[in-house]
Amino acid sequence: MAHLLVVDDEPSIRELLEISFRKEGHKVEVASSGEAAKARLAAQIFDIVISDICMPDMDGVELLRYSKEVSPSTIFILITGVPTIDTAIDAVNFGADRYVVKGDRLLDELRPAVQQIAENQRLKKEAGELRRQIRRLTGFDQIIGTSPKMRTLFDMIATIAPQSSRVLITGESGTGKELVARAIHENSARAKTAFITINCGAFPETLLESELFGYMRGAFTGANENRRGLFQAADGGTLFMDEIGNMSLTMQVKLYRVLQEGKIRPLGSNEETSVDVRVIAATNKDLEKEITEGRFREDLFYRLNVIPIHLPPLRERSEDIPLLARAFLDRYSKSMGKKIEGIEPEALRRLEVYEWPGNVRELENTIERAVALETSKRVSVENLPERVTSFYRESRSNGHSENKAFLIPDAGMDLEKLIGSTERAYLLAALECSGGVRIRAAEMLKMTYRSFRHYAKKHGV
User: Fold this and answer.
1) Buried/exposed 8-28: b ≥16 CB within 10 Å, e otherwise
2) Rounded to whole angstroms, what are the CA distances from 241 to 128, 138, 316, 336?
3) What is the pLDDT of residues 208-251, one digit of tens each?
4) What confidence tens digit (pLDDT) does each residue in 10-32 have?
């Protein structure tokens, strides 16, 4: 629904339009004069203004000109009881979107106009969100993994997604925190609304405040028009705040207030606007340590950490590496126009042994590089980075296990469960490599089709 400002010096018209549009679910504010409307436009952002032309202190055309200066995105509808050719020409010249004559059919003409404008703005917002998603799609478009830790993560997402509680995602860089945040959003009741992301570490304090809360014209040098912040853009949806641990203490105070009260105040405005936003924050820092050292506010931490999710580093779920590598191989083979069918066993073994300090993002970059350099039908050891192959050589020369996942931790391990997860991961990888053809997948795993069916049934593949 739209946020409307109705401007008219006749109380009966104001009351009629306010009651009618509120019944239809719109948020409606009223002003009895042009000057009062001007003050409202300077303080907040409206989707639509419906204004009378003839008013004692300021006519509607002058108000229209002011609105286009401070808030060009606001749609303006002029209404008049005394239509003339001159006022109609002025309305068109200065950018009025509709020109409606007062009378018995005023509501009949305004209702469809407002409905159409609100629908167009909704579609623009959805199109803008789709463009943002496409621009941000830098890796695979789903979370991939069959390891126990990833299955636990999927269960957690399914459980918490329908709620509106805030979520704090922690984990090393490159573990896929934004993918998890997006999965939570897409499995929630907010899925059809905006999913907005911001990297809090990418902006200095002053710019971050204007990005989050918006600003009014004249709030600072260069603020030539009113602009919505990301909290307003995400109203009704989800705001993903990455690298929240890099936010300054001053901004932490302001964010805490928004989370506590559910209201934002744009820079340069004296008025607050209510917003309904689910905040999902993420960080690669230990926030409890940051609190102890005075760099993060404890009260904000507890506001954000309603539902904590920790993403495991890739070295702790190495059984997922074949699936991830195959997904990246398919992606970059298609984008580069190459027909690369798979990864040589020796190359895959080195990928599994490597510790991946850059996590999934580093694995993706490694596969992209290998695909770009590969001239045969399978990724070979020769086209893996030196850091990956040298780590393999060093681990063997030091007498270490070829796969650190096979080292037994002090607390012990569930060997049967680990072997089952590994078997399932390779079954899925073989099916992906074979395009879903089970006989071919069985051949790749050097087992009979009957054995393949047995393991597929055992692991629910």
Assistant:
1) bbeeebbebbbebbeeeebeb
2) 19, 18, 25, 33
3) 999 999 999 888 888 888 999 999 999 999 999 999 999 999 99
4) 999 999 999 999 999 899 999 99
Using one digit for the tens of pLDDT, what is the confidence trace for 430-455?
Answer: 887 777 888 888 888 989 988 898 89
Helices (H), 98-176: 106-136, 148-160
CATH number, domain of 90, equals: 3.40.50.2300
CA distances 372 to 2, 338, 383, 398, Å, are 49, 9, 9, 32
- Shared domain check, 350 and 212: no
13: alpha, beta or left? (left if phi > 0; alpha if psi -120 to 50): alpha
**pTM of the complete model:** 0.65
Say how many C-beta atoms besides its own lie within 10 A of residue 330's C-beta. 16
C-alpha 4/C-alpha 50 separation (Å) is 7
Q: Which residues, other chains included, contact 70 with Cβ-Cβ below 8 Å and sequence gap of 6+?
A: 41, 42, 216, 217, 225, 226
Do the bridges between strand 167-170 and strand 278-283 make them parallel or antiparallel, or are there none, so unpaired? parallel
Annotate 274-328 with DSSP letters as a single string. E---EEEEEESS-HHHHHHTTSS-HHHHHHHTTEEEEPPPGGG-GGGHHHHHHHH
Q: Where are the alpha helices (DSSP H) in 406-448?
A: 415-433, 438-444
Q: What is the DSSP letter of 408?
A: P
Number of other residues whose CB lies within 10 A of the CB of residue 40: 17
140 occurs within a structural domain: no
Judgement on whether residues 390 and 407 belong to the same structural domain of the protein = yes
- Among 282, 297, 312, the domain boundary falls at 312
What six digits make up the tokens of 282?
Answer: 């993420």
Same domain, 96 and 174: no
- What average pLDDT does the segment 408-416 reach? 65
**What ranges in 343-437 are assigned the alpha helix state H?**
345-353, 359-373, 386-397, 415-433
What residues contact 330, with CB distance under 8 A and at least 6 apart? 432
**Considering the domain boundaries, does residue 130 fall inside one?**
no
Asked whether 217 and 41 are in contact (CB, 8 A), the reply is: no
SS3 1: coil
User: Using N-to-C axis directions, what is the helix angle for 60-70 and 34-43, rounded to 10°?
Assistant: 10
Where does a domain end: 312, 333, 367?
Answer: 312
User: Residue 47 corresponds to which tokens in the numbers above?
Assistant: 């989707």
Instruction: Look up residue 347 and give its two tokens.
Output: 């190359």
